[in-house]
Amino acid sequence: MINVTVNGIAQALDVPPDRMLLRALREELGLVSVREACGVGMCGSCTVLIDGEPMSACLLLAGQVEGREVTTVDALAANGRLSTLQQAFVEKTGFQCSFCTPGFLLTTTALLAESPAASEDEIREFLEGQVCRCGSYVKILAAVQHAQQLLRSETQSP
Amino acid sequence: MSFVPYVDAHARVTGQIEYVLDMTVPHMLHAAVTRCDVPHGHLRRVDTSAALAVPGVVAALTGADLEHVGIANPYFGSIFKDQPVLAIDRVRFVGEPVAAIAAVDAETARHAASLVEVEIEEIDAVFDVAKAIGEGAPPLHDEMRPAPGFADVSLQSDPGRNLVNRFVIECGDLDAGFAKAEFVFEDTFRTGGTQHVPMETHVTIADARRGHDAQIWAATQGPYILRAELASVLGLPESRVRVMVPTLGGGYGAKTYPKLEPLVAVLSRHADAPVKLVLDRYEEFLTTKNHESLITIRTGVAADGSLVAREVNSYWDAGAYADISPRFIRMGGCYGPGPYRIPNVRIRSHAVYTNKPPSTAFRGFSNPQAAHAYECQLDMIADRLGRDPVDLRLANLLRSGDRFATGEVMEEMNLRELVSDAAQQIDLSMPAPTRPEDPPQLRRGRGLGVVIMMTITPSSSSATVKVNGDGSVNVLSSTVEMGQGSRTALAQMVAERMRVPLERVRLVDPDTDVTPYDLITAASRSTFMMGGALLSASDDAIAQLRQLAQDELEVSAEDLELRDGGFYVVGTDRGSSFGKLVTGSLVGTVVGRGTHTTEGGLEPTKGQGIASAQWHQCAAAAEVAVDVETGHVTVERLHLGTFTGKTINKTNAELQLEGAAIFGLGEALYEELEYDGGHIMNANLASYLVPTFKDVPAEFTTTLLESSDPDAEVHGIGENGMGPIPAAVTNAIHRAVGVWMRELPITSEKVLRALHEREVE
User: Fold this and answer.
1) Which of B54, B78, B342, B500 has the fewest CB atoms lying closer than 10 Å?
2) What does the pLDDT read at residue B171?
3) A65 and A109 inside one domain
4) Touching check for B586 and chain A: CB below 8 Å?
5) Does the model's pTM come out above 0.90?
6) More confident of the two residues B155 and A53
7) What is the mean pLDDT of residues B190-197?
8) Is A136 in Cβ contact with B659 (below 8 Å)?
9) Pick from B476, B404, B289, B363: which is nearest to B716 by CA?
10) How far is Cα B615 from Cα B412, in angstroms, rounded to an integer?
11) Are B449 and B724 contacting, i.e. CB atoms less than 8 angstroms apart?
């Protein structure tokens, strides 16, 4: 059994510790938003947050997340309400086929938690490991910057 | 134009949008494929006994089984039925399927597939188009097996020379044209093979059990093409084959024509259970690719700079099976003259078999390769003549009313405006100035590229619009949503035409049992073709609703106006909503039908006729920075402009243009399949590099040029941004460091080598 908190819920996963985390999340918990695209940690498609840090679920084994917190894109919207970042991606259309979108959203969530006022260069650099083959980068950048603005006005308003 | 988000945006940003990858059906087995590891050979033995002994394995399929599994045709292919469902007696490329396993889970299937024993007697292989079509090359195919009817392609094949097909254009008098020329330029250009790399690899679920109608859930851009192919393979009427397509995780041409779907369907038949196959990234690289090209272009130029003659000989690497290569080289041939007025033209375009994975459609469909050749040569001509490259283009570009090399009259030509705009945006009239922060080894240059693009002609799309009892609208369309936003743009067109709110219009995903015929989601045709069908279908529904309103309100048609989702007596509030009209009519739903068909085609001997129902147009200008110590090229500024006719959704259109340009940057600078003895050496995303954020130009702008005519037809824009990019980058590099890069991709190594060679000279 692997004891792990996934999207805020304590889970005991009945998988061998060497099971790829990506498979465990998809097959045991039905979290199909975690999608493999390269299988070698190069494209960022299957990114999840481990204790808030973006990591490729295709490179992690279930045993490595014992006792830790795993967040997938499924947890970003609370009670059907999109997070500010998700809303910003909708309002700037920061996607096309959207296969890579969960990875972009989670990585950006980590970036904005760590550095809410990240500059354009910092955003580009932080997201360099995420591949969008449709090439939506210009709009993704606009979405992240839009989210920064929205978050700023949220914290300023009482 | 106000912003309209994707209608499915919520599902996209919550990770919930459904791909075939995420689907399961009851009693489903999982498949894995055993692939051959030699490029060419006679298949002597395939032994699946060890695989079948693995607990959890349900079935193993080999080429020898194809005779016994109760199928009608073991070969498939849209133009030539030359590709076996899995290797029967020959293997023709590394990675060709030789056996398939169905098991209770994917891990078991993969393990079992690795235990299949394969014996192959290797024979000579050929990997290069020039060698493959030359004397003494081993022929890959003994016969061609043409498939019945392909409206836009005529067959001119020679299997003995590995010639899949040839395409010809002849117009004017070539010799007389060259005799008039003051200068003649002849140059050869090459492009490497690239892969589409859709984030979602090919994936299919097939249920082709005996005694059942076949059901297929596939990541395909061509549901109707796939249905016809599977009906042929399985020996079923098309009415008993149902292809369903949810959202695709990218396509870019990779998912146009059948690839693994016939194998999955036959394996399902053999295992007597539904089967799912998901390719891993390595297998995706082995399954299909873009065409490598070898293009020799000879252009005659008069003293005043006008282009008077052009001859193009091009060879395109089809790989081991024909797939769509005959159409690909037809377009590749048509792109030879470029967007220029040239009175005397001869084009010879050839698709050639080699022992490499089969090539297929690829975003841009030969346009980037062709444009790299003719646009680079155009800058060479400008250089030699001492002419400004923009002025030389403006003097030669096609204008409305000009005849193209195919004889057709060009309409809505906005090339001069697009070129002038791009040149202005990137300040092409001036050399790129050094910036204070530039290190001493950095050189800057600016360049331009301009293209015209075709769409498949003739072709057809049909659609149905259903107006429900509450006045909401379902739209039945077989256009595949693969990220281009068709679900949104097409719904917008219906909503606008029918004057109903967008949120009350919903597109039904492609399902060949339900949604009407569409040729394919490709060739940037959907908004134009399916859009046209939907407008006709909307008009049909509107006409029926108007009649209902006339009857109910007892007024004549001219007294009625269409607004707010209903019909109202002009200038009054008296009227009826669609919902009330439909409910009152007691028919349940009002159904409108529409078809949009284009006519044309080229006669086979001289390629004369109508090549394309509309010609897409795009120009790009780039500023690059070249590091002369490392050879590294960075595109720092980029502007693209395209003609949209009428823009349906500005954000979607920009995304298409920007996305295609970024795809083009990969083609221009990085992407190439590297082979060793037919083995792809970089079949993974650690060594095959696709553009990421660091490749996006710091300054990146677009122009969407609309027609001045408010009733202008919508132009396709999905691929336009690709074609001019390699050309613009190549020309900018020449301005920066004085070398012509005749081969794509323009890697740092190639730039360094070219700089070194120039120094030696």
Assistant:
1) B54
2) 98
3) no
4) no
5) yes
6) A53
7) 97
8) yes
9) B363
10) 8
11) yes
Q: Do B14 and A74 touch (CB under 8 A)?
A: yes
Tokens at residue B600, please? 């044309």
Among the partner-chain residues B10, B15, B651, the one whose CB lies closest to the CB of A73 is B15
CATH numeric code, B293-456+604-760: 3.30.365.10
Pairing of strands B293-301, B183-191: antiparallel
The answer to whether residues A94 and A149 belong to one domain is yes
What are the C-alpha distances in Å from B596 to residues B39, B509, B517, B528, B534?
44, 19, 11, 9, 8
Mutate to test the interface with B, among A97, A111, A125, A127 (most CBs of B within 10 A): A97
Interface subset of B 644-663, CB within 8 angstroms of A: 651-652, 654-655, 658-663
CA-angle at B195, arms to B193 and B199, nearest 5°: 170
Cβ distance of A86 and B14 shorter than 8 Å: yes
CB contacts, 8 Å: B281 with chain A: 37-40
Specify whether the CB–CB gap between B118 and B46 falls below 8 A.
yes
Number of domains in chain A: 2
Which residue, A57, A75, A93, sits at the end of a domain? A75
Query: Smallest CA–CA separation between B30 and chain A, in Å?
Result: 14
Query: Are A93 and B14 an interchain contact pair (Cβ–Cβ within 8 Å)?
Result: no
DSSP assignment of B707-734, as one string? PSSTTPPPPP-TTTTTTHHHHHHHHHHH
CA A103 to chain B, closest CA, distance in angstroms equals 9
What string of H, E and C letters represents the secondary structure of B601-635?
A: EECCCCCCEECCCCCEEEEEEEEEEEECCCCCEEE
More confident residue, B29 or B152: B29
Burial class (CB in 10 A: 0-12, 13-18, 19+), B420: middle
Res B154 pLDDT > 90: no
Residues of A in Cβ contact (< 8 Å) with B661? 135
Amino acid (one-letter) located at B42: H
CA dihedral B484, B488, B494, B499 (to 10 degrees): -150
Predicted confidence at residue B710, as pLDDT, reads 87
pLDDT score of B167: 97
CATH class for domain B460-598? Answer: alpha beta
Chain B partners within 8 Å of A135 (Cβ): 658-663, 691
Structural contact between residues B367 and B524, judged by C-beta atoms closer than 8 angstroms: no
At A148, which CATH number? 1.10.150.120
Burial of B220: CB neighbours in 10 Å, binned 0-12, 13-18, 19+: buried
Interface touch A74/B654, C-beta < 8 Å: no
Closest-CA residue in chain A for B15? A33
Q: Are B154 and B344 in contact (CB under 8 A)?
A: no
Q: Specify whether A89 is located in the same domain as A151.
A: yes
Write out the residue range of the structural domain in which residue A31 sits: 2-75
What is the Cα–Cα distance from B169 to B608, expressed in whole angstroms? 7
- Local structure of B142: helix, strand or coil: coil
pLDDT of residue B533: 98
Mean pLDDT over A122-140 rounds to 98
In this structure, the strands spanning B83-84 and B75-76 are antiparallel
One domain, residues A63 and A109 = no
Q: Are B256 and B78 in contact (CB under 8 A)?
A: no
Q: B552 to each of A92, B277, B577, how far by Cα in Å?
A: 45, 55, 11
- CATH assignment at residue A41: 3.10.20.30
- Cα-Cα-Cα-Cα torsion B505, B508, B510, B514, nearest 10 degrees, comes to -120
Architecture of domain B9-123+196-287: Alpha-Beta Complex (3.90)
